[in-house]
Each structure stands twice: as C-alpha cells, then as structure tokens.
UniProtKB/TrEMBL annotation:
It comes from Tribonema minus. GO terms for molecular function: nucleic acid binding. This is Cleavage/polyadenylation specificity factor, A subunit. It comes from the Eukaryota. GO terms for cellular component: nucleus.
C-alpha cells in the first residue's frame, strides 16, 4: 500500500492507480489477504495532484511541473513515460479528449489557462517523441477546478465523439468540444472579424482577453509562441442576436453566408445539448 497523503486515484484496467506525492503505485486486489497489494510503482516529478486514465494510458498533473504522459504495460507490470510537457505549469485538472482517431490531453492551470496537448512523436516539435505538442491554448478567466468527460450528441459521424465539461473555481461551467475542420475555419474567421467590428463590454477585446497567460518570464513565453486554436463560444453566439444587415456584412467579409454560419453554430449547439 502507498504511504502518505493521496493526491489522486484512478482505475486503470483491473488495477487501482494512486498518487502519493511523487509516487505512483499500481494496486491489485488480493482475495487471499483481502487487501490491495502493489504490483507496480513509478516516481513522477514533484507532487501529483490529478490523474486521468483512458485504456492503458495515464496523464499525471504535477503541482509545478505540468503533465507527464505514461503507459501501463500489463505484460511486465511496468509504467513507462512516453512524453511530457516541459513548460513549468501549476496544474489543477486534467482530462483526456477523445476525438477518434485523435487523443488530446486537456490541462487546466492555476492562471485560468487551458492547454490541449497531443502525443505526436512523428513531429519535429516533439523532440523525438519526448515532448507533448501543444495544439491549442485558451484563457477562460478563472482557474479550472475540474474536468468531466462528456459524450457529445453527433448525428454526422459513426465514431463516438467526446468533449469535456469545465468547472471553474469561480462557479462557472463551460463545455470544451471538438469541431470539424471546415466549420472551425469558418467560425475562426468570423471570430476574428467580430473582434474588430463589434463593440465589446468594458472595452475588453475578446482576442486579448482569451490570450494564454504564461507562467514563464515574458521573454521565454514569447520565444515559445502560443497555439490559439480554440473558438470563443461566448463571442460567436452574439452573431445570432445581431441585426440581419450586420450578419450579412460580417459573413461577406469572410466569404461565406449567414446560413452557413448558422448551420455551424446549430451543430455546436446540438453537440452541447446535455448542458
């Protein structure tokens, strides 16, 4: 059994994974002794506060050193690190985002940021597969307290699609959901036009308000660059309540139609029906 305060618990296959400080222990039920016995151990970075599992893959969220992506091998009962995020981050919550055939790792930190990471060893940015690649980042305005995986309604694809409910420490609730590339490009272009063309509350431009707040010094953060890649639903839904003439002008500026934009928004609304 593990000793010390347990920071996270998760089920992986028929085992129980526990995190106590930096030690990850895999436990198996022993009917003879009527107790859990350790069958595997892994020493993580500093202090693990969150742990997520999908199949035999684990992601560990550390109190200072971001996340590690691990794999449990039942054959030899070992835990192997596949990759990690090298940007120092005070992680509050993690979850896997399944959008077949892709598998994303969603990370929420103490600064109110959300990062979507991916294990892509074939990419140069992964440094030979040792580094998790950042696909998107976003600032939600409050630290994330918890993620909850949610199966989305989807009538277009045969494969199941999953999103993540986001619970903020300020009491807010949001939904993070994948979107088809064509619809994403259309809405991303519209989002850019709306940022510049519309007036915003308190003079706060959504583009600046949603920029990632790095915990690194300014010079290091600028060197790393940011991967936006997330749509601002609160801004985009303002399009529905705009006058018809303004809608036509905005869509004309990005080379599409009002109907096409409304269909894309309707698809997003259908997926988020459970909320």
């Amino acid at each position: 059994m593990c000793a010390g305060p347990v920071g996270a618990v998760a089920q992986i296959s028929r085992y129980v994974a526990t995190a106590a400080a930096a030690s990850i222990t895999i436990l198996e039920w022993d009917p003879k002794s009527d107790s859990l016995r350790p069958v595997g151990i892994y020493e993580a970075s500093q202090y693990v506060v969150t742990m997520s599992v999908v199949k035999t893959f684990l992601v560990l969220g550390d109190v200072m050193n971001s996340v590690q992506f691990l794999m449990w091998r039942d054959e030899d009962r070992s835990i192997n690190q596949l990759a990690k995020d090298y940007e120092p981050t005070q992680v509050y919550a993690t979850v896997f985002l399944v959008d077949q055939p892709s598998l994303g790792i969603v990370v929420g930190d103490s600064s109110g940021n959300i990062k979507i990471l991916r294990y892509a060893p074939q990419l140069l940015a992964s440094r030979g597969g040792h580094r998790l690649v950042c696909d998107a980042d976003f600032h939600i305005g409050a630290p994330v307290g918890a993620f909850g995986p949610q199966r989305l309604r989807n009538n277009k694809l045969n494969a199941p699609r999953f999103g993540a409910a986001v619970g903020g420490l300020d009491g807010s609730v949001a939904l993070l959901a994948p979107l088809e590339e064509r619809a994403f490009r259309r809405l991303y272009a519209l989002q850019g036009v709306m940022c510049n063309a519309l007036e915003h509350g308190a003079g706060v431009n959504p583009r600046g308000a949603r920029l990632f707040r790095s915990q690194l010094p300014a010079a290091a953060a600028a060197e790393g660059g940011r991967m936006k890649g997330v749509l601002d639903g609160a801004l985009l839904w303002r399009f529905v309540s705009l006058p018809a003439q303004v809608q036509c002008e905005l869509t004309r500026a990005i080379g599409t139609t009002v109907d096409a934009v409304l269909l894309s928004l309707l698809d997003v609304d259908a997926q988020a029906g459970m909320l």
